[in-house]
Amino acid sequence: MFPINLDLTRLSVALVGNGQPTLNRLQQLDGDGAKYVTVYSEDPIPELARQAGDRLHRYLPNSADVNAASIMFIVDLGEEKSAELAAIAKAVGTISNVEDVKEYCDFFSPARVQRGDLMITVSTNGHSPRLAGRIRRAIDKWLEPNWSDRLTALSAEREKWKANGANMQQLLEKTDEYIDRRGWLP
């Protein structure tokens, strides 16, 4: 597996499903600032229809719809429909995730803790989402809210160092010194 963070303000997302898990994923995508989300649902729960608004298509996506998406999330559809959509995605080159069905996934959504732009993710590569979630909760308790402010301050210092001509090695050393002086990490 190769970990990456995707900028969903720039990529088109297809979300396919009908129930509460689909609504949960849509709320997460919306909360993360995804701009180009299309929801496909044959029988959406009322809350999903409300949240999706004019982004909702009341049918399952065809190959052209899947091809138009950069990334596709398939949630709570059942194995047969999920397998069919995952195969279409593979055929047209759209990366896809079938929630909790590892063999159909091109990627996995990690459990995460976020403080502003600081994001820590935990993944088991689909082997145990529950374990990843429990580790995430432990990190969430440890990672104080002020880490967002710490990152903002460190980023400002780093920009000053770069403006003053620091090379990569110097940036690394100055960053370590900054963190160590403040006792942020053991």
Outline the fold blueprint:
Layout (H helix, E strand, L loop, with lengths): L11 E5 L3 H12 L4 E5 L5 H7 L3 E2 L5 H6 L2 E4 L4 H14 L2 E4 L12 E5 L2 E5 L6 H14 L4 H17 L4 H15 L4
Parallel strand pairs: 1-2, 1-4, 2-3, 4-5
Antiparallel strand pairs: 6-7
Helix pairs in contact: 1-2, 6-7
Pathway: Porphyrin-containing compound metabolism; siroheme biosynthesis; sirohydrochlorin from precorrin-2: step 1/1
GO molecular function: ferrochelatase activity; precorrin-2 dehydrogenase activity
Keywords: NAD, Oxidoreductase, Porphyrin biosynthesis
Question: Care to describe what's here?
Answer:
It contains seven helices and seven strands; from the N terminus they run E-H-E-H-E-H-E-H-E-E-E-H-H-H. With 186 residues, the chain is α/β, with parallel strands linked by helices. It folds into three domains: 13-109, 3-Layer(aba) Sandwich (Rossmann fold), CATH 3.40.50.720; 112-142; 146-182. The strands form two sheets. A five-stranded parallel sheet has the order 3-2-1-4-5, sandwiched between helices. A two-stranded antiparallel sheet has the order 6-7. Helix 4 (79-92) links the parallel strand 4 and strand 5. The radius of gyration is 20 Å and the shape is elongated.
- Helix and strand string, N-terminal first? EHEHEHEHEEEHHH
Topology-level CATH name of the largest domain: Rossmann fold
Shape: elongated
The beta-strand count equals: 7
In CATH, what is the class of the largest domain?
A: Alpha Beta
Largest sheet: 5 strands, parallel
- Strand numbers in spatial order across the main sheet: 3-2-1-4-5
What is the number of independent domains? 3
What integer is the average pLDDT? 95
Please name the fourth-level CATH homologous superfamily of the largest domain: NAD(P)-binding Rossmann-like Domain
Distance between the termini: 29 Å
What is the count of DSSP helices, taking H or I runs of 4+ residues? Answer: 7
CA radius of gyration is 20 Å
β content, as a range? Answer: 15-25%
Point out poorly predicted stretches. Answer: none
Q: State the helical fraction.
A: 40-55%
CATH architecture of the largest domain: 3-Layer(aba) Sandwich
Structural class: alpha/beta
